[in-house]
TrEMBL record:
This is tRNA(Ile)-lysidine synthase. One of its GO terms (molecular function) is tRNA(Ile)-lysidine synthase activity. The gene is tilS. Coiled coil: none annotated. Belongs to the tRNA(Ile)-lysidine synthase family. Residues 370-439 form the Lysidine-tRNA(Ile) synthetase C-terminal domain. It comes from Niveibacterium microcysteis. It is an enzyme of class 6 (ligase). It holds the Pfam family ATP_bind_3. Ligates lysine onto the cytidine present at position 34 of the AUA codon-specific tRNA(Ile) that contains the anticodon CAU, in an ATP-dependent manner. Cytidine is converted to lysidine, thus changing the amino acid specificity of the tRNA from methionine to isoleucine. Its EC number is 6.3.4.19. The N-terminal region contains the highly conserved SGGXDS motif, predicted to be a P-loop motif involved in ATP binding. Keywords: ATP-binding, Cytoplasm, Ligase, Nucleotide-binding, tRNA processing. The keyword Nucleotide-binding applies. It is found in: Cytoplasm.
Length: 446
């Protein structure tokens, strides 16, 4: 284990205000009965965070636990995990050690890949809040990093003190407005031990370069630069909130039964339409699209002939008549032949099928006899008792099934006979009770 940095002397100025300010922030941001998971690396910042949480969480009626992520990227990783275990044992805080494998093939750099793996593992622990030790310097660095990459208003908003997007658990940063100098002073006054990660000094990594080569000299020339940058991030966050409110208003205006009205979308100015597209993609869990993607999507949306589908990175924009919606980028595909055994949930191809028994009007289905397969050609159905059977292509067109989905929806057979396709069923299969089936397509909404 690397030698932990030892304290110098107790009673460092600034220690008492940090403790009281932390208690007030924690009380404001949480509610009694909630569960907090502290991300604990063993470094200075997370060590101070964990000690402050251990002091105040019980008095506020909060359940506290800690989690350490073992990346395996440093020779001392095992020693760091052991150190974190010792600290948690002394504090009486239960610790979970998570071993993760960092995917270095994503093309985003090892720094970002490690961060993504770490956050994914921590969020899988659940609870109400994942508590992170980001401080004011981290906020300033994040703003500079994102501005250097041309981020828009939402990116420049950097980090939020309490962020419930993507939760639960939400992300809680009770030290976000605290300078690191105060954390160091308090750690020394309390005689805490922590680990110094040697990679923090390596300016090959982007954030370290910003911290040491940009922010440090900037703060020397302008002592209030760090606080000003953090304050600017707060202003950007406020502006981003206003843009989100505008997007919500526009979304309500353009909403249609199947997604959004193309005519209503195209009545918006380009700036409002780009803002709405960003907001809706974010709401469905997609990464923020870049300007080029949005510009091209908007251009094609204006001139596309229905039906139309175009992929843009991880997502696709779709048009059918006046309806517009998003889907995942890969073209929908069928699944293999299989037999439904009575499961409530069945994954087939790229769709989910939900089966629910009903005592009212339902389908007369027999578990173990109902098969699912891709279209083979020539299948016909009679969805209306008073009309003759028709081929699936005609039925799909009349039902508004986009062409790219007509080969990706399952054909149902029972007793060897075609009885359904997608959500279209033979009239002879309907009864006073039975089964109700819902087919969910990936992100097929606006």
């Amino acid at each position: 284990m690397p030698d932990p940095e030892r304290p110098k002397a107790p009673g460092t100025p600034g220690a008492v205000p940090l403790v009281e300010h932390f208690r007030l922030r924690l009380a404001r941001l949480t509610q009694p009965g909630q569960t907090l998971t502290a991300a604990f690396s063993g470094g200075l910042d997370s060590t101070v965070l964990l000690h402050l949480l251990a002091r105040w969480a019980p008095t506020l009626g909060l359940t506290l636990r800690a989690a350490h992520v073992h990346h395996g990227l440093q020779a001392s990783a095992d020693a760091w995990a052991a150190h974190c275990g010792d600290v948690c044992d002394r504090l009486g805080v239960p610790l979970t050690t998570l071993r993760v494998k960092v995917d270095t093939t994503q093309g985003i750099g090892i720094e970002a890949a490690a961060r993504a793996a770490r956050h994914a593992a921590l969020r899988e622990l659940g609870g109400d809040w994942l508590v992170l030790a980001h401080h004011r310097g981290d906020q300033a660095e994040t703003l500079l990093h994102r501005l250097s990459r041309g981020s828009g208003v939402h990116g420049a908003a950097a980090m939020r003190e309490a962020d419930q997007r993507g939760g639960p658990p939400g992300l809680l940063r009770p030290l976000l407005d605290t300078p690191r100098s105060e954390l160091l002073a308090w750690a020394q006054a309390e005689q805490l031990c922590w680990i110094e990660d040697p990679s923090n000094a390596d300016t090959h990594f982007s954030r370290n370069f910003i911290r040491h080569a940009l922010l440090a000299p900037l703060s020397t020339r302008f002592p209030g630069a760090e606080a000003a940058l953090a304050r600017a991030a707060g202003h950007f966050d406020e502006a981003a909130g206003l843009l989100d409110e505008l997007a919500a208003i526009d979304h309500a205006h353009v909403a249609s039964t199947r997604g959004a009205s193309r005519a209503a979308l195209l009545s918006l100015s380009d700036a409002r339409l780009r803002n709405l597209l960003r907001a809706r993609l974010a709401a469905q869990g997609y990464a923020a699209p870049d300007t080029d993607q949005l510009t091209e999507a908007l251009r094609q949306l204006r001139c596309a002939t229905s039906p139309w589908r175009a992929g843009f990175g991880a997502w696709a924009l779709c048009v059918e008549d006046d309806d517009v919606w998003f889907e995942r980028a890969p073209v929908p595909h069928a699944g293999p032949d299989c037999v439904w055994q009575g499961e409530a949930l069945l994954h087939w191809g790229c769709v989910e099928l939900h089966f629910e028994q009903t005592s009212t009007a339902g389908l007369q289905l027999t578990p173990g006899d109902l098969t699912l397969s891709a279209r083979r050609g020539g299948e016909r159905l009679r969805p209306h008792a008073a009309r003759p059977a028709r081929d699936l292509k005609t039925l799909g067109r009349d039902a508004g099934v986009p062409p790219w989905w007509r080969t990706a929806l399952p054909v149902f057979r029972q007793a060897g006979q075609v009885v359904g396709w997608g959500e279209i069923w033979d009239a002879g299969l309907r009864g006073s009770d039975g089964w109700h089936i819902t087919i969910r397509r990936p992100n097929a909404k606006f």
